[in-house]
Amino acid sequence: MSNTPNEIKDKDDLRKELYALLGRLPERDRPIRVEMISSEEVDGVIIEKLLFDINGQELVPAYFSKPKGATGKLPVVLFNHSHFGQYEVGKNEFTQGRKEMQTPPYAIALAKEGYAGLCLDSWGFGERSGRAEIDLFKEMLWQGQVLFGMMVYDNLRALDYLVSREDIDPDRIATMGMSMGSTMAWWLAALDERIAVTVDLNCLTDFYTLMEKGDLRLHGIYYYVPDLLSHFSTSSINALISPRPHFGLAGEFDPLTPLEGLAIIDRNLKEVYAQDGAPEAWKLKIYPVAHEETAEMRDDILQFLRDWL
Questions:
Q1: How far is the C-alpha of 147 from the C-alpha of 203, rounded, in Å?
Q2: Rounded distance, CA 214 to CA 233, Å?
Q3: What is the pLDDT of residues 221-275, one digit of tens each?
Q4: What distance in Å separates the CA atoms of residue 138 and residue 128, rounded to the nearest whole number?
Q5: What is the DSSP letter of 252?
Q6: Residue 25 φ then ψ, to 5°
Q7: pLDDT of residue 35
Q8: Where does the chain have alpha helices with state H?
Q9: Neighbour tally for 104: CB within 10 Å
């Protein structure tokens, strides 16, 4: 596999190595405390506003959604919001949508399909947007922390919370997101095998191609993990998801995901999924659009979830 260090190592060892690059993180087994702030019905969907104590540094607001009247254990989608430089949006993308994405918002769309959903405010976004992203990055760097690592940690603990809920089926967990949320989705799935299905929309970017094109500035500062390329490529991170189902969606005219890099990732992951005996579980589809979600993309995502979740 080209540009893929460490391909002969055991996947569990590689996950530990990848996690270790994420800086000085809180303990994974620290207690989780959650408070329900409110619960309301919107278009036949129950939306709970939650407040988590999961990292010991700052509280994490979130939205949990599920179909009204649902019984038994539900499949769930851990939804990761995007960036777009719109720090005030955060988890509201999940419940209210955004202009770059289709309607209805995913909290509603997923519930209509019978799925529960959870979306956190990431560091520096939504109700956590009091400090600038660049200030968070620099402050954490001084303390041996990595901003993206802290983002990942919060979502891994969100998984811990989800599997603790009596109304969630721990064997039917998916993760997805657009842009920054896409990157979070494939990192989470690479690190945690509890994620059964992965959908990444508009941010499956080959690191080496991005450097060759001189386009590092197009991705936010959160995206950069120290020393990552000494250990992993985009392909080798995503290879850790195999043989679990993974659907990548990209725009032909999206500068954040150069086509040359997508071709490298696609070739490498086809090889990995074939070796793992699941060639049908990896899918990349490129659409004639830029950095946005179209109606066709939304339809394809929901169908992929129906097929695999």
A1: 18
A2: 17
A3: 999 999 999 999 999 999 999 999 999 999 999 999 999 999 999 999 999 999 9
A4: 17
A5: T
A6: -105, 155
A7: 98
A8: 11-20, 92-96, 106-112, 133-142, 147-164, 180-191, 207-212, 234-239, 259-275, 295-308
A9: 17
